[in-house]
Design goal:
The structure holds 2 protein chains of 2 kinds.
Chain A: H1 5-35, H2 42-45, E1 49-52, E2 55-59, H3 119-134, E3 151-156, E4 164-169, E5 180-181, E6 184-188, E7 201-204, H4 217-220, E8 230-231, H5 233-247, H6 251-260, E9 262-263, E10 274-276, H7 277-287
Parallel strand pairs in A: 4-6
Antiparallel strand pairs in A: 1-2, 3-4, 3-7, 5-6, 8-10, 9-10
Helix pairs in contact in A: 5-6
Chain B: H1 2-29, H2 36-45, H3 55-79, H4 94-105, H5 115-118, H6 121-151, H7 161-187, E1 197-200, E2 206-209, H8 214-223, H9 244-268, H10 272-298, H11 303-308, H12 320-333, H13 348-359, H14 370-390, E3 395-396, E4 399-400, H15 403-429, H16 440-455, H17 470-500, H18 516-547
Antiparallel strand pairs in B: 1-2, 3-4
Classes of the chains: A alpha+beta, B mainly alpha.
Amino acid sequence: MRLPSWLSQHLAALRALLVFTVLLGLAYPLAFVALGRVPGLDGKADGSLITVADKTVGSSLIGQAYTDADGNPIAKYFQSRPSAAGDGYDPTSTSASNLGPNSVVDTLSDNPDDASQSLLTQVCSRSLAIGKLEGVDGSRPFCTSDGVGAVLAVFYRDGLTGPVTRVVSVNQTGTPFLSTYDGVTVEPAKAGEDYQALGGVITPIRGDAPAHPVVPADAVTASASGLDPDISPAYAALQVPRIARERGMTEAAVKALVKDHTSDRALGFLGEPAVNVLELNLALDQAK
Amino acid sequence: MVGWLFVISLVLALVAVYRPFGDYMYRAINPKRNLRGEQLIYRLVGVDPKAQQTWGVYARSVLAFSAVSILFLYLFLRVQNKLWLALGVPQMNTHVSWNTAVSFVTNTNWQAYAGESALGHLVQMAGLAVQNFVSAGVGIAVAVALIRGFAGRKTETLGNFWVDLTRITLRVLLPICVAATLIFMIAGMVQNLSGGTDVTTLTGATQHITGGPVASQEAIKELGTNGGGFYNVNSAHPFENPTTWTNWLQIFLIFLIPFSLPRVFGRMVGQNRQGYAIVAVMAVLAIASIALTVGFEVHGGGTVPQAVGSAMEGKETRFGIPDSATFAAATTLTSTGAVNSFHDSYTPFGGMMPIVNMMLGEVAPGGVGSGLYGLLILATITVFVAGLMVGRTPEYLGKKIGAREMKLASLYFLVTPALVLIGAAAAFATGNNSTALNTGPHGLSEVLYAFTSAANNNGSAFGGITVNTPWWDTALGLAMLLGRFLPLVLVLALAGSLARQKPTPESEGTLPTHQPLFVGMVVGVTVVLVALTFLPALALGPIAEGLS
């Protein structure tokens, strides 16, 4: 029996798809799963798991949060970067924040479920908290001293031009970070108001914080994966005095451990130097 | 500075492999005899490898194969929760299944789901990764058919789709993937069938370390310019991209085939210099774009990057900013769409570059196969424009570019802008833009990015937008489907009409298509066409944001 050509073509297509599925979808990956059982490769194929005293404590490639049940940092551990994966470092829901570079206006609400922080406020509050934890200056450009984004909604008489008629500090419900702007008294924001929709021009205020803040960039930003296993050498160095104090070690001893767990750029020019936080914290626990 | 070394080393590596690897692909596509494995496949599929196909039959074979693939993958996704290695994931709903099936068959790999929570291992391996291979094979096969159109002399036929697909898969894609998988496993990528391991962290919390056949999928994800990550965060995930040098290798694999295919073009039309001209156009556009993307990202801009001191939001420590930006440019200059950092959090102009790259039509160097045929269409338009200027009948490689050829080329070019602009307008008209996370110009960028990515079969995203609603899944699925198959049929029709012609001998007045002047003209035509089409939309989105 001869099939019509349109049907025979689809039949050939189906047969081709099945052949390729067996070859490329089963044989090829499963051969490598089998290869992953070979001693030497098996540890990596299984996820570079680290076992201490017969207990699996994590993967050297996957970061962890070193915080207590309330989310406060545990002082004897080096802290990881902020994470947007689930409640933090959750490999079952990896994610970045996806907030844009001009995400500067918080949604203020009396109901915590409706409120949300802009990326700028998240950065400011993290910087302030880390500054406090490490005993250094946590100030940053475009941040208020109480750790939110220093952003005004400025109302002009003619929309975008003319004299200023009203100024609101959009991220603060308490005392504004600036008393006057262009001669006009700055008001605090009211929860639930959308000042942009009312015609206010969103104006971030640089302030007088140093251009190179003490708290490094990676400490105040969420990573891409939410599982970043590393921190920058600068952020590690910032944490050394606290770790030494908490653990009764000399700073030199802690610094030596940090150096042991710092990987340089591959071949001298690929990527950035990075400190593996889990391996470093394990080494600290074992140093005692 | 080290960021530029990263880029330069990639350029040097690609220059080094252009001839040897291009020649290898030429021999793989035009071999002296069939391998035994290939003969077995032809028997199992039931095709005669010696049969030649007209452009119509070639196109119908491509469409039949893709239609069967979409249907098969859709059903696979719908029942995956009942199959082996399902890991207890729930059933995937109809609209996400439709979107995902279209997405992987069209080489887009747009992901409306999160891999670690929505898919079992079997469907990843035997469903999605199979399409990673064969959708790449389809793209290359169509490009080869177009080259045969230029090279043919008064012939009706363009080769045999099933033979092209088999040879490309077995001789080009699979061997490189085998090598790359091995290297990736040595670097620390996972490759297992485990449902994951629960560990107790140093602070006593529980963490679920995920498993999966990741390394084998990662290789074809990059090599086939597919881009669909095993996990939600794609090549940012330490299991998908564990080291600074796997990051380099992934970018190299993304560029490898698209940048070497012009060599195949040169060899098949019998003039290697024609291949050099095409690859020069690709290189000029790509290097300019990478330099701009890296420059914009490193030098900041936007309030938050200024407050932070650098654009580290959404980037991994080990990659840093320049290498992340290079990846972003690579993934959007090709039709890959994998990401190692999140474009949504890029500086305003840094985040505009991936959109611009996709709007260029992904021809510099573009997806595997689709980049070459896209650029050959632009070269054809350039020849026509040049012919108009001097008042001669335009010819490209001895083939007259007449009314029929120009109609096909123009229609090809119009498909993508129509899909992007109509799609984005429809999202706003129906209020579906409200699922964007950000507001104002950045919200427009998110919508624009989604349709640009889908219509160009890229698959990367400004991740802030929620797209797994029925409206978005359906609309983006249609954009992907039409954005892939309309151009593909137009290319094959053009190939058929070129093949039929008898080449006219070169004369005094023929525009040489292998010299810097022509390269410059193609670059110009590409940029002008894109600028005229998309500038208004860009001005309302990223440009407005960057200047405010």
